[in-house]
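ZP: hey, is the uridine-5'-diphosphate-glucuronic acid complex queued? I don't see it on the tracker
AM: it wasn't, my bad. submitting now with these inputs:
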Amino acid sequence: MTEQTAQTEFDATSPDSARGPRISVVGTGYLGATHAAAMAELGFDVIGVDVDPAKVEALSAGKVPFYEPGLPELLVRGVESGRLRFTTDLAEAAAFADVHFVCVGTPQRPGSNGADLRYVEAAFEGLAQHLTHDALLVGKSTVPVGTGARMAARVREIAPAGLRVELAWNPEFLREGKAVHDTLSPDRVVVGGASQWGDDLLRQVYARPLSTGTPFIATDLPTAELVKVSANAFLATKISFINAISQVCDKAGADVTVLSDALGHDVRIGRQFLNAGLGFGGGCLPKDIRALMHRAGELGADSLVALMQDVDEINMWQRQRVIDMAVQACGGSVLNRRIGVLGAAFKPDTDDVRDSPALNVAAGLHLRGAQVVVYDPEAGETSRRMFPTLTYGTSTEEAVTDADVVLVLTEWPVFRQADPTQLLALTRPGATVIDARNCLPADAWRQAGWTYRGLGAAR
Ligand code: UGA
């Protein structure tokens, strides 16, 4: 959208302001940085806030401090246009913006399944304290149901008297690796707890996606909060379901990939998130199902607690299953055996290694005495920071050289497209490949001379 179009659209609904509401985004991680850049792309004046001065400095210089395809271009455009800037000063953001999106992290609390809400609380309280004019505060972070109502009460207590200050929840559904697309073209916009005024403001913010038919679902705070966690819980359940089925496939000699394809033709089921393998990780699904388990327990919703517990257990067991396969491929012990690990990120197209199943398996084998060499096209640095004791290679070839066993743990295209004949020439004789994402062309690898093992893959 050109600046001109944005102005025309917003002039119609917001006569007081040339470009519609001014926006702040508090927290500039994967979610916030993308949201801030996307809002600037839509034509708004945006200020991003973060407590980390290094992040603010990088973003201000148009540099994205993590790997997210398409985001650097969007960020540079926003910064160069003058519509997007960053600060560490929450008071500056409070004085500047009309709509404030809170995008801070809600990690798992140490020693508990519950979510750590201290950053959310600090963001809302800090904003409320510094407001100088009417404002809509919008939660985007994933939170336990009930948080929005609690924050709304807190904000009412703290905000200066005489101002119109409201709170709404607008959960985010973006996927890492596809964050720019998901933010500019969301498949739905969910808004909880907004008054008519708040509703109007958010319809202005999302005018462009709404104009292309994106559904706008206006509801109450608890429903909006629960939509988000239910979506992630359902996705996690789908993955654990297919992984449990893959275990049956292993025992029965069936092929889980063919099975998933066949299931996927039923539109009620759908093919997505039915890829059996090493299971889910990342900064969202694992901690979100645990936080849901915790909150459901507090609310006495016991059947959901039991369901999420099973989903989590099946998922974590996949990691053990792959470690066991590697041990078996090495004849019962990995001690002093060379293992090449392809993939460290929790999924392709990201350098995020938070709760990465791949790194978990690599570290597990390392701790059992294997000589592990890990290669990931983007997550080398983030992995090294998380697990400095592992050895990291700089290419697929380096990771597989002299290996007894090669594990494919993240389905990057570069691994899927690798030439199995060339790679086998680098390994020790009789090498096994464990395709823990069922992503390789199994026949081609077998024909090249590899012993191929997948999860739930017919022999
Ligand atoms: C997830 C949700 O998909 C987003 O909608 C949500 O907004 C986001 O969490 C969030 O809460 O912020 P993300 O964490 O980026 O997004 O990752 P996903 O694409 O959901 O993948 C999660 C994990 O599931 C990955 O480790 C992936 O390898 C695994 N997965 C995915 C499978 O094992 N099998 C599949 O079929 C699909």
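AM: back. Residues 142, 172-176, 232, 235, 239, 273-275, 277, 279-282, 284-285, 288, 346-347 surround uridine-5'-diphosphate-glucuronic acid (CB under 6 Å).
ZP: great, adding it to the tracker
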